[in-house]
Amino acid sequence: MTAIANWMQRGRRIWRGHLQRDQLPEATGSSMGNIERWLLALLSVLVIVSCVCATIVLMQATALKAEIAMLQRDIIALKLRVARLDQIASANEARDKPSTEAPKPPAETRPDQAVLVLSREEIQLIRDYIKPAPVAGSAPEAIKVGDPVMGETIPFPSPITDKVRKLLGARFTIRNGVIVITRIGSRQADVVIGPN
Fold first, then answer.
1. How many helices (DSSP H) and strands (DSSP E) are in the chain?
2. Measuring CA to CA, which of 19, 28, 69, 88 is 20 to 30 A from 51?
3. What are 174-186's pLDDT values in tens digits?
């Protein structure tokens, strides 16, 4: 009987040991399986988040490309408009150029402008520096003080303006053998110096 009891106890111990061996790896396997499941879930979440971020970045890049293309079209349209406006402005300047050369009596006959008066010495100094060519042929119509001055005028050279300070900013031209002087901002003859 004791031998049978001992044999049964040994069988129970072997069975328990066997069960314990089966249960230990199962528990360890379940904990490893849980870790693997968590890692897989975390990896899946990271993949989903990265896909969402990549989609957002791609949409933003597409939107920015479309906006850049639209801005380039706007810039081209603005350049064309500016070129057209430049052409219109240059055409208007070319059309209005003869009218800008016309005299402006209201601006030049202001009573607050002082009359330009030159002494004999100043006139002689101007004649010494500026020598108009004599007029050949019939005597042309003489220009008088107050007549409009058309065309280009020349600023006085510094040797004259250094000695005659009232001629600073004044300009001159030669018409029909006479020296015609205009004050600064004036388009009419303020002083006419004829030949000697």
1. 4, 4
2. 69
3. 887 788 888 887 8
Strand partners, 179: 174, 193
Q: What is the three-state SS of 30-75? A: HHHHHHHHHHHHHHHHHHHHHHHHHHHHHHHHHHHHHHHHHHHHHH
Q: How many CB atoms lie within 10 A of CB 175?
A: 20
Structure confidence by residue, pLDDT tens digits, 113-134? 556 788 888 888 888 888 777 7
161 close to 154: Cβ distance less than 8 angstroms: no
The rounded distance, in Å, linking the Cα atoms of 173 and 181 is 7
171-176 LR contacts (CB < 8 Å, sep 24+): 172/130, 173/149, 174/130, 174/132, 174/133, 175/143, 175/149, 176/135, 176/140, 176/141, 176/142, 176/143
> Which pair of tokens denotes residue 139?
């005597």
Residues 148 and 187: beta-carbon distance below 8 Å: yes
Dihedral class, residue 176 (left if φ above 0, else alpha if ψ from -120 to 50, else beta): left
pTM, full prediction: 0.40
Whole-number Å distance between alpha carbons of 53 and 58:
8
